[in-house]
Amino acid sequence: MWRVVAMAVAIAVGLFPSPAAGSSAWGSPRYGDPPGWCTNHSDMWTAKIVTNDPLVGMNPERDTFYGFHPNPGYDDWYGYFYGDFRGTAGDASGWVRLLHEDYPNHYHWNFADNGWAVHGHAKQYIAYYNWTFGGECGIGRYGSASPPPYMADQYGYPVVDIYVDSVPPPAPRPEVLRISTNSVAFTWNPVVDVGAGAGADYFVAGMDHYTSWVTMNDSSQPRQLLETVEPRTVTQAGMSPLDVACVHVQAFDRVQNASPEQVKCSRALAAPPMPRWTELAARVVANPAGIGLVGLDSWFWLDPAPHAVTIHEINGGIDYAITATPVSATWNFGDGGIADLAGASGYGRPYPQPSSITHVFEAHTQDGFIVRASVRYAVTWTASMAGRSPETHPMGMFVQTALPLRYPVKQAQPELLRI
To answer: Is 0.70 topped by the overall pTM?
Structure first.
């Protein structure tokens, strides 16, 4: 009856005793029976406890001791402990007196009552000496001043293996897996439980699960709260560029030690600001250089020739690549002539190549015509992270004006040369 009650209480406080019939050497094989150990009249129940309490505040022996012989019968209860306590592996306590009982009084004890702090694994033997009948193993007698050998408890668990893992798993490291213009996806690295650390008999409970959830902006309300055995991908969709999503994750071992909560936050992608594009500055160049002639083709081009330019900006750990690609050019020759051409043909070609941009001036001017050109660029942007292929997003158009050219044009005068 008392054994059943003890088991129910142990389970209620979060320990996990597992009774098994067997010899007193059950558990760690290198722990032999202590000196004076006697199993006469004992059913030799054993138990295993797995806990995260370094002082093991409960065990199956608690509240199971009581004197079962009428006066003048009384019992002295003893414990013998092997294991890794107080940071010393392979320790042995020797027989420690736990309590004295007079029938019909009822007492209890805890493992920590005698200051035993388990580091990883300890094995306890619980025994009594009844002063009415001596040792009951053929040695000792009523009134003897030498009570050993000690009798195994018939009513509790005389041999108990205690396994303590009081150290949480390492904290997982959440990271941003991918970002789009309306969503953020997170994940984290798997971790391995390290148990109680070091020592000859240290114990590792092992990983149990991860708990993860998402919060949005300044709210503490959890979203997508879930326990999983393995790391998962958590995606928060429906975001605007102003929203901030945060993933929270903890790792738990099998005795529910929890790592500190880890948090990683990110915004959805937003278009970066338009650069100034000083790299795209060009000037108008002509041939004939210096002075043009009425009625004669003048060739024009832009120097340097327009070309695609990419500028990188780092923001929040994300590499934004902004690319401007020339699309077309518009020319104004200053005498009312205009040309609008798409592609490379709109930028002309430098002399001595024949240029695709030509103009014939029909009048002369001493002050010169002002030849202007402007180039239209299409702008796109991408965001690269975690080695994933970036998506290209349009950013609009802009016009880059070239440095104009003042181009004097003269009337050609025929001259008769005498040879």
So the answer is: no
